[in-house]
Design a protein that fits this description.
- The complex is a heterotrimer of chains A (298), B (316) and C (440).
- By secondary structure, chain A is mainly α.
- Chain A has helices at 2-32, 39-59, 64-94, 99-121, 130-135, 147-169, 171-181, 183-188, 193-215, 225-240, 245-265, 273-284; strands at residues 137-140, 143-146.
- Chain A has one domain (2-284): ABC transporter involved in vitamin B12 uptake, BtuC, CATH 1.10.3470.
- Chain A is built from twelve helices and two strands; from the N terminus they run H-H-H-H-H-E-E-H-H-H-H-H-H-H.
- Chain A has a two-stranded antiparallel ribbon with strand order 1-2.
- In chain A, strand 1 (137-140) and strand 2 form a beta hairpin.
- Chain A is globular.
- Chain B is mostly helical.
- Chain B has a single domain (2-310), classed as ABC transporter involved in vitamin B12 uptake, BtuC.
- A two-stranded antiparallel sheet of chain B has the order 1-2.
- Chain C has 440 residues and is α/β, with parallel strands linked by helices.
- Chain C is built from 16 helices and 15 strands.
- In chain C, the strands form three sheets. In chain C, strands 7-6-8-9-10-14-15 form a seven-stranded mixed β-sheet.
- In chain C, strand 9, helix 11 (282-285) and strand 10 form a beta-alpha-beta unit.
- In chain C, helix 2 (51-70) packs parallel to helix 13, helix 3 runs parallel beside helix 4 and helix 13 (328-350) packs across helix 14.
- The chains are: A mainly alpha (298), B mainly alpha (316), C alpha/beta (440).
- Chains in contact: A-B, A-C, B-C.
- At the A-C interface, helix 1, helix 4, helix 5, strand 2 and helix 6 of A face helix 2, strand 7, helix 8 and helix 9 of C.
Chain lengths: 298, 316, 440
């Protein structure tokens, strides 16, 4: 019983982590059809930015709430700067080229940004431990849970609802849905796809940096943290179906629960879980779980 | 025209083979590994022409490499030719089996499913502690036509051996490109359904491409194992696959030669970058990649094509 | 291609010039002119996740030591300039990348840059791949941080030396220390990274436990993915287990993430835990690591070093330069470099002061006893190529008044107590009941 409860809670926490990390990637892919490798850089810069700025904030003993707010501010700044730089400076030049070429551009940018991180902040690792301490822990059903983890789950849920609401009920969101569905049609109807791309990419970058910022307290912020995130995020997005918020959410939940179950029941399998789930889903649902049927163009 | 190409290719290989005699040892070992990897890239070019980019080609690369390593460890066989043929067969069979499923997929789903499969192999290798897990294990030195070689001779013979496989692969692939199945690559990419209407099974075409590419990757892995004399599970990891894809795009789908030149230049640039700026070499590598994409839209291969046009030679 | 050829030609000219200059100046005026420098290639992680915990401290250690050696400022017995009077010229190379790339970089150092000695390698995979190449190229190579026991157990290696003891010592000592602190252990758990280092560490620890506490059984055996970053499920599994102690060979990124996440959920203060390589992270985790955690440093290094002028010098010089005390990878680098220096100078003395050849250095290196900053190492196993030394474990305590980490309850174990004898593989020794272990 305790194990079942542990699987559920651990699954939720891991799912929250995956969702926060993956949603920015899903957005960019859904709209722009770009497999954005720099997502890993956004994540890393968000984490470094938060570790340094928020760490300094807490060290100065200001009110705790402001620290959490500052994480968001850091993410916005990082996303704006890097997102604009890469979309305006690089991607703009290669739009219309083969999709894989665009991937290579983002990969090159990722390589360069990895070393920029090193030049900016050296090789030492940074820790942002205060939020975890402030979060404290609670005993629920015989298991000690971290307050920050619970906060993370709540944050992921809010993020999912906010994103879903924004897509359905705001003007920009609806326009975005049109672009996701058919970008040529959208352009034909006078939607300024170019502006949409910039906005989307910057938004995706902010979300990526936000993922890094909220994970920073839980990890050691060090070189190479961006690499692992890329494939993880991609797997989640593929499982759920590309360009769909619900998809990313369900994908994250499935992977999270499976991984937690593996750790508790058959730890030997943990290494395979995410890839096994991805392979299985693709075998039975070749376009992911939540992709609507696409008309084939002749 | 085709005979001229074959002749030019043969000449190029002959020049490189004889140049090896004066090549310094470090450059030759770099070139040996670059050429072995070029075979994987060659396979990826075949797939890319049809619009397919797998992120799990390391599956076959590692299969080839581990075939050689395991044969050396558990049997008394040491013959290099036999090693590579065994690796080619095994990875070809694996590609056939994987292809049964994979040939139905396109785009990002194709990429990610192949990635998942290679990562499952990676997981199995990491879990196999008797094979050294992530540390991997030593590959026994192969013999060439019955004799074990050492020192400079061994390096030279291995280089020629790899080069010979490259020449063979280049020949086979150029024949394939001119065949009906090969020349349907662009239609597969652009207008798949029209091909289906013509009664051509696109899945079968893709399946064949997968088998060729998988076999080439297996041979590449086997040769890399012979050159490095060590195998480890990283050979199956997604970053390895990713690396191959990037060299492929850098090289461009334009020509067979591009695979070899691209692979060599990539290794060289990386090595020089590490030499110049040990801590921040990725900046150099990234910048070179970016500049190539921006100023050589068709990849390195387009240099060859453009050069031909300037010289008034028609491309085939 | 053509470009590469030009570069090569250029290099050869420069090299030839340098070489002939060296020869000319060395031959007639050996006493008066400065001897040709000794080129040392140093390979370690300068980028990627292993850079912060291992690569950079190792590199920094090398920088401080080589600079001081060249200036003749290191205390006795290493007060002679460089290696036997010849200054050291160091070239640093990144270990990141695939095994093929690491081997290529190694070949580049030996064949292109013509270094006299290569020192380094953090990853055991790199060490295993480079070992046969070193023998093939006949290049003297001193392995640094990598801990796998397989290097000399699979095959004797003429050109390879490893002054640092291998990883078996760390885990045998961990088992001894755990039993020393807790008296009786009936169940224990382990959380180790899912790759060779983690698997080997856990294997050695469980085998040692079988010998030392036969009644104890393993409960949770967790192997999360390397650099997983998020350990919520593992922490829950450990929280729901009633094991009396947890073994972990985590390092850096994973270690610190585990400490933060486990600390937040009270795991670290609930169950005693032993971190076999925890020392590299102490200065970063500071007060976030609760007192009482058992810490190893892969040898009696840093906070557990035997005191002496050499240790005080290294501690001070490193701290002055990098405003942070040295951690054990810096000590490992010190052991490698001083081991090399001792062997080189022994060979040179035997030759009457003339510069020794590689083979002469190797002959002097085999079985040598080396005084290093933290302890004395003997190259007693692996046919005289593998070092053994005593080791130590300690218990963590954060000194709040001075704001710095400390290790208390330090227990030292002599080399024979925690290392296999010369004629035995570590696993065979552990499985055979650790015969011949002397712990007094």
């Amino acid at each position: 019983m305790l194990t079942a409860f542990a699987i559920l809670t651990d699954g939720l926490v891991y799912a929250a982590y995956l969702f926060v990390v993956a949603i920015g990637l899903s957005l960019i892919f859904g709209v722009m059809k770009i497999l954005n490798v720099t997502h890993g850089s956004f994540y890393a810069f968000g984490a470094y930015g938060a570790a340094i700025a928020v760490g300094a904030y807490f060290n100065a003993d200001y009110a705790a709430a402001g620290g959490f707010l500052l994480m968001g501010v850091v993410a916005i700044v990082v996303g704006l700067v890097l997102g604009l730089l890469i979309e305006r400076g690089l991607l703009r030049v290669v739009y219309g080229r083969d999709e894989v070429v665009v991937v290579l551009v983002t990969y090159s940018a990722f390589l360069i940004l990895e070393d920029v991180l090193r030049l900016l902040w050296g090789t030492e690792s940074y820790a942002l431990y205060q939020p975890l301490a402030i979060g404290g822990n609670v005993m629920v059903g015989g298991l000690v849970l971290s307050g920050y983890d619970i906060g993370l789950v709540v944050f992921a849920i809010v993020l999912a609802f906010a994103a879903s609401y924004a897509l359905r009920h705001t003007r920009y969101g609806r326009l975005l849905t049109v672009v996701i569905f058919d970008r040529e049609l959208a352009a034909a109807f006078g939607i300024n796809v170019s502006v949409m791309y910039t906005v989307t990419f910057v938004l995706g970058a902010i979300l990526g940096a936000l993922g890094g910022a909220v994970m920073a307290p839980k990890i050691a912020v060090t070189l190479g943290i961006g690499v692992e995130v890329i494939v993880l995020a991609f797997a989640v997005v593929i499982i759920g179906g590309l360009g769909s918020i619900e998809g990313a959410l369900i994908g994250a939940l499935i992977v999270g629960t499976c991984r937690a179950a593996a750790v508790h029941l058959v730890p030997q399998l943990e290494l395979f879980v995410i890839y096994a789930v991805m392979a299985l889903v693709l075998v039975f649902r070749p376009y992911g779980l939540f992709t609507r049927a696409q008309p084939r163009k002749i | 025209m085709t005979w001229r190409n074959t002749l030019v290719g043969a000449l190029a290989f002959a020049v490189v083979a004889s140049a090896a005699v004066v090549l310094p040892a470090w450059l030759m070992s770099l070139a040996t590994i670059a050429l072995a990897n070029a075979l994987v890239v060659l396979g990826l070019i075949i797939l890319w022409r049809a619009g397919l980019v797998p992120f799990g080609q390391a599956l076959f690369y590692a299969t080839g490499a581990y075939t050689v390593a395991l044969l050396g460890r558990f049997t008394d066989l040491r013959d290099a030719v036999l090693f590579v043929i065994a690796a080619a067969l095994l990875s070809g069979i694996l590609a056939y089996l994987v292809g049964l499923l994979l040939a139905r997929y396109r785009d990002i789903f194709f990429a990610m499913l192949s990635l998942a499969m290679s990562m499952i192999l990676y997981g199995v290798l990491v879990k196999t502690e008797t094979l050294g897990s992530t540390d991997g294990f030593h590959v026994e030195s192969a013999t060439f036509f019955g004799s074990a070689l050492h020192g400079r001779t061994a390096e030279l013979v291995l280089f020629w051996f790899v080069l010979a496989w490259c020449a063979l692969a280049a020949l086979v692939v150029s024949v394939y490109f001119r065949s009906v199945a090969g020349s349907l690559a662009v239609p597969v990419r652009e207008r798949e359904i029209r091909l289906e209407f013509l009664g051509i099974s696109v899945n079968r075409l893709i399946h064949l491409k997968l088998i060729i590419a998988g076999t080439l990757a297996g041979i590449g892995g086997a040769l890399a194992a012979l050159a490095v004399e060590h195998v480890d599970p990283t050979m199956a990891y997604w970053t390895t696959s990713g690396g191959f894809v990037f060299v492929t795009i850098l090289a461009g789908a334009g020509s067979i030669a591009a695979a070899f030149i691209g692979s060599f230049l990539f290794e060289l640039v990386r090595s020089v970058a590490v030499d110049l700026m040990p801590g921040t070499w990725q900046i150099i590598l990234g910048t070179v990649l970016l500049l190539t994409i921006l100023f050589l839209p068709g990849g390195l291969g387009s240099v060859v094509t453009v050069g031909r046009r300037r010289l008034g030679i028609k491309t085939p | 291609m053509r470009h590469a050829m030009c570069m090569r030609g250029h290099r050869i000219v420069v090299l030839a010039a340098a070489l002939s200059l060296g020869l000319v100046s060395a031959a007639p005026a050996q006493q008066a002119a400065e001897p040709a420098p000794v080129k040392i290639g140093i390979i370690t992680f300068l980028t990627g996740p292993a850079a912060a915990p291992f690569g950079i401290p190792g590199r920094n250690g090398a920088e401080v030591i080589i600079e001081a050696l060249n200036a003749g400022k290191v205390p006795a017995p290493y007060n002679q300039v460089g290696l036997g009077g010849a200054k050291i010229e160091a070239k640093y190379v990144d270990e990141a990348g695939s095994t093929a790339q690491v081997v290529t970089e190694y070949r580049n150092l030996v064949q292109r840059d013509k270094v006299d000695v290569v020192v380094g390698f953090v990853s055991s995979g790199s060490c295993l791949a480079v070992a046969p190449v070193a023998d093939e190229l006949q290049a003297l190579t001193v392995f640094d941080v990598c801990g796998t026991t397989r290097i000399f157990e699979e095959k004797p290696r003429k050109y390879i030396f490893r002054v640092n003891p291998h990883a078996t010592m760390d885990n045998v000592a961990a088992a001894r220390y755990v039993l020393n602190k807790l008296k009786t252990v009936n169940t224990y758990s382990g959380i180790n990274q899912n790759y060779a280092w983690g698997q080997d560490s856990w294997r050695d620890f469980t085998l040692a436990m079988k010998n030392l506490a036969p009644q104890a059984t393993a409960d949770k055996v967790l192997f999360p993915k390397l650099f997983a970053g998020e350990f919520g499920a593992e922490i829950s599994a450990l929280l729901t287990s009633n094991a009396q102690v947890i073994h972990s060979s985590f390092y850096d990124g994973d270690l610190e993430a585990f400490i933060y996440q486990g600390g937040a959920r009270g795991l670290l203060s609930r169950t005693p835990i032993v971190f076999t390589t925890g020392e590299t992270s102490l200065y970063r985790v500071g007060a976030k690591l609760p007192d009482g955690v058992m810490i190893g440093a892969r040898g009696p290094h840093a906070l557990m070093a035997h005191q002496g002028p050499l240790n005080s010098w290294l501690w001070q010089a490193y701290t002055d330069r990098f405003s942070m005390p040295p951690v054990y990878p810096a000590y490992h680098m010190a052991q490698s470099l001083f081991g090399l220096k001792a062997a080189w100078e022994k060979a040179q003395a035997k030759k009457g002061g003339a510069r020794p050849t590689t083979d002469e250095v190797i002959a002097a290196f085999e079985g040598i006893e080396v005084v290093t900053p933290s302890t004395t190492v003997r190259l007693a196993i692996g046919k005289g190529h593998q070092g053994v030394s005593d080791t130590a474990y300690g218990t963590y305590r954060f000194n709040k008044s001075e704001g710095k980490p400390e290790l208390v309850d330090i227990v030292r174990y002599p080399a024979e107590c925690v290392n296999p004898p010369a004629d035995m593989d570590s696993v065979a020794w552990l499985e055979g009941g650790m015969k011949g272990a002397k712990c007094d």
